[in-house]
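Consider one such protein record:
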Amino acid sequence: MVKRRSFLTGLGSAAAAQAAPPGVSGVPVRASSSGLPPRKVVVGTAMQPFWVKHPGLEARLDELVGIVDRMVQESKKAYGRGLDLAILPEVAITGEAGRDALATSVPFDGPVNKAFTQAAREHHCYIVVPTYLREANDSKVCSNAAILVGRQGEVMGTYRKVHLVVSGDGRTMENGTTAGKEQPVFDCDFGKLGIQICYDMEFDGGWEELGRKGADLIAWPTQSPQTAQPAARAMAQRYYIVSSTWRHNASMFEPTGKIVAQIRPPQQVLVREIDLSYAILPWSGKLRNGKALQEKYGDRIGFRYYEDEDCGIFWSNDARTPVRQMVQSLGLLEAEEELMRVRESYRKAGVPG
């Protein structure tokens, strides 16, 4: 049996019309979203271990729906409205695969479908539902999967983990699990959602593909609580990443690479509002660490400026005025635009690389 814990420890056209310059590693990042109207999204995530003895499917489903209920309550308390997206931890329904992933797996049709479609309808939110999934078209195949349920209880699609943990002898992947082959992006009413699962973090391809497809937000159900790699991937691809974990922390990473929100034990539920239409601005004397925009627009603009990184992330609180318009009103350039300007000067000067 694979010792996974020890193994793992060792909207569209308006944005696309704007530049999509190279990322940190030279890989294209998603197009800037700053020209779009504000897109406030309340995201809930959780941290809970599932190494305990499985209580039975009905009890586990009640437990997980209860976690979603808590997220909704926290959202109403903090923001006066319900949740937009709930993300549960990796294989939360089934727990670990044990020696036989197929025997552990469950079909989506039946009790799982009923529990989460009902919860999604009741709370009018999207839910990322992770489990070892017994495939409907072949009862002898299972995947480490995350099913996305829509606000009306509709199944919007499924991401099947591509990068499964491989046994020490190389003979099996997650005790008989079948690897996925696709990196879908789901069109939600707030933007484009991608999903990666746990060990996918170690491999560039999925993260880059989701960036090319314009993902605004990546849900990352995982057993691994790491933060350095997701921070780097969020910065390189300029999207949000939200982890839902078994231990240590659950975190929200913004496109600057900073952790915008995080919980640690004994906390279990994290809820935070983010805006998927934003501009990342580098240091400039004109910006004055964000004060120039704040003085002009007051509460109509929101931001977090990081003096230790010489940059900040800015968003609009005015439905009529995209943040890009605010930024341009002061003659400021977004981070990638500034890099493009500098690169052109380097090109003309014959600077190598």
Observations:
- Confidence is low (pLDDT under 50) at residues 1-28.
- DSSP finds ten helices and 15 strands in the chain.
- The CA atoms of residues 78 and 240 lie 20 Å apart.
- The longest strand covers residues 126-134.
